[in-house]
Amino acid sequence: MRPKALTVLIYSLAAISASLFWFTRQQERPLSEALLGWLLFFAAPLLFVFAYPRFLFAAFPFQTGRSRVATILHGLAAVITVVLFVIWGSPFWKNPMRDMDSIRLLAVPIVALPVFFVAALSLLLKNRSTLAKFASFLFWPYWLLLALVFVGRFFEATLFRTAFCFLCFITPILFAFAAGAISHRPAIAHASALAGLMGMPWIYWTTLQDSALGNVWTTFNVSDRELLMYNNLHPVELTIFSIGLIVLAIATATLRLLPAHWSLRGLPLCERTWPAFSASFLFLAVWFSQSVMPYRISGAVDYSSWPILQILHVEKRGFQFHETCINVGGGYRNHPESVSFSGNDRRLFQYRFQQKYASGELPEPLKLRIQSMMQSSESATQNWETVKPLRAWNDDGWYVRAEGIGLKAYTTDKGTTPPQEIVDLFNELQKIPRTWKTQSDGKDVCLGFCYDPLSGLGFLFANHRCRYDGHAYVCR
Fold first, then answer.
1. What are 285-312's pLDDT values in tens digits?
2. Cα–Cα distance, 298 to 390 (Å, whole number)
3. Which end of the chain is more exposed for a tag (fewer CB within 10 A), N or C?
């Protein structure tokens, strides 16, 4: 595919993706409803923006004053709509469209959408349209109305962030205009696409940055039983794909604006596209690597009580892991009362694995033995940073966590071995008859490389692994 045609395709897909990204992040709806809403309210105005350069440049190629005046007017209109959105869009109770009657609200798209669609078709087929000027004046009020209608019902942010929220909403316009203007004013087109950078701060705050409940990548670790409610909130695959396309469009615009005498292997660098694809892939790879470690599942779960004693044994043989965790629950004054078992057999390069759970009756002699062992402990150290995934080809790891003991790790690759009383107790507890309770599907978006011993001990959800340090969420 020729660079020009490929660039038009990239900018067009970026316009669609950017508008879908903003819409789906604001509206908590299933993907099918989101796509239908986009087709009804966004497709026609973006098609008009794509065709609008024909009205500005193609029909009157020598009237540069006309395009200059149009640029000034549209720039002024964009500034006014940003200011109005900042005033009305946040806080949410000032939004005039928040409780607007739906019948009256539908009157606007019923009038505006046919105007946009007819004007766009006429420009694309005939290079002229009597409705183009009217549609251009109608566009910015309509786009502001869309933002006020579809912004989150309880959206509230600082004035600074509210402005960037609307600037992110403008980026599809910039990409659509760039796609249509390439044949007429390439430099203006690529500069317009590069201006899509102004949407990146809002993308960073809402998506790239970890939140208290996780991020889009850790949503892939959610079990199938709970996945529907996550996808209904935010279709994560579409989010990742959209951000990748936005970055690709910005990288492509950067390349196209490079000086023509800059060359690579005899071909001007500004005519190449593969560096833009490489930059987009690298961006997604860095985002992925920063988001998935340590292993956690999006969401927050607060357990009623933690076991008073946990012993986790992890055996790694090549790509295979065998994990067994024994949990001793406490009763009155943390006296040992119950025992439960969890474990899995998983492999590296495997996305899904089965988690097994069982329970049993704790014999009285073992209760006394556990109580005596915990009371005899001299120190309680709990260094989470020492608990790392096993990486050696053949390795064994023992992890003990208990009241009065803290958290201790023993791994063969570091030459440490667990106390014999821990191993003996683990083997004795393993002999207890058990009743299998449930099985659940485990997932690791890192294909087994992120799941770690803390996960095996039950620290699975974002609120178990992350905390706010006053500046950002830090995950251990």
1. 999 999 998 899 988 887 767 888 999 9
2. 23
3. N
Instruction: Give 131-144 pLDDT, tens digit per residue.
Output: 999 999 999 999 99
Residue 81 phi, psi dihedral angles, 5° rounding: -65, -35
Measuring CA to CA, how many Å separate 107 from each of 102, 138, 152, 366?
Answer: 9, 14, 22, 75
Q: CB of 57 within 8 A of CB of 185? A: yes
* Amino acid, single-letter form, for residue 67: S
Closest by CA position to 404, among listed 308, 307, 279, 294: 308
Q: Cα 326 vs. chain centroid, distance in angstroms?
A: 34
Q: Any bridge partners for residue 440, and if so which?
A: 355
Which two tokens mark 153?
């019902």
In sign, the C-alpha dihedral spanning 370, 371, 377, 382 is positive
Angstrom CA distances, 145 to 19, 31, 98, 280, 455, stand at 14, 22, 11, 32, 46
For the chain, how far is it from start to end, CA to CA, in angstroms?
46
List Cβ neighbours of 398 (8 Å cut-off, separation of 6 or more): 311, 312, 313, 314, 409, 410, 411, 417, 418, 422, 423
- Sheet of 352-361, strand order: 381-382, 406-411, 394-402, 309-317, 320-330, 336-347, 352-361, 434-443
How much is the pTM?
Answer: 0.88
Neighbours of 118 (CB within 10 A): 17
